[in-house]
Amino acid sequence: MHLLIHFYILDFKERNDFNMNKRKKVYMLCTVLLGCIIATGCTPDKKLSDVEKVVYTTLPSEEVVSVTETPSDKKIKGETLNDVKIVLNLDSASKSIAYEKSLETATHLLANMDVALENKINDYTFLINSSKLDVYGNSQKVKVVEIKIDKNTVDKINFDNFDYLNLDKISEVKKFKYLTEK
Prior knowledge:
It is a single chain. This protein has helices spanning 2-40, 50-58, 95-116, 151-156, 167-170, 177-180, and strands spanning 64-76, 79-89, 121-133, 139-150, 172-175. It is an alpha+beta fold. A five-stranded mixed sheet has the order 1-2-3-4-5.
C-alpha cells in the first residue's frame, strides 16, 4: 500500500511538472506576442495602415517616430493617392554617416513601398533625425535631413541597380543646420 501511494505521488508530480512546463511555454509565448504588439505600437483598437505595415516591417520600431498619410489631389483609375510623411530617428556616429544612413534608409523604404503600395502614394517625405553629442558629452535629438520625392520619379527608379547615394540627385533634399554647420 505504501509503495502504491508513493507511485501515485510520483505520477502526480510528473503530470504536474508537465503541466507547469506547458504553462510556462504558453506564458512565454503570450509574453513574446505582447512584446511584439507593444513594439509595433499596435493595440486592438489601432489598426495599422498599409504604409505603416511596410514601414514597421522594413525598420526597427524604435527608429520610427511617426507615419502620416494625407489625401493628395491626384487620382489614378478613380482612386485618390496619398501623400506620406515618415519621421525617423537614426542614430549614427558622425555627420557624414548620418547623411549616408538617411539616404540609404529612405531608399530602402521607397523600394519596399513601391512594391507593396504600387499606385497608392503620390509624394513621399522623409524627415530624419539623429542624436548629436555636445562638447560635454550630452546627447540631443537634431534634424538631419528632409527628403521629398514624387511618384513619377520613384516610378523611374530601378531599385535592383540603384545606388542610394544618388537619391539626393533625383529628389528634393533639405539639409538642416546639423549637417551644414562646421
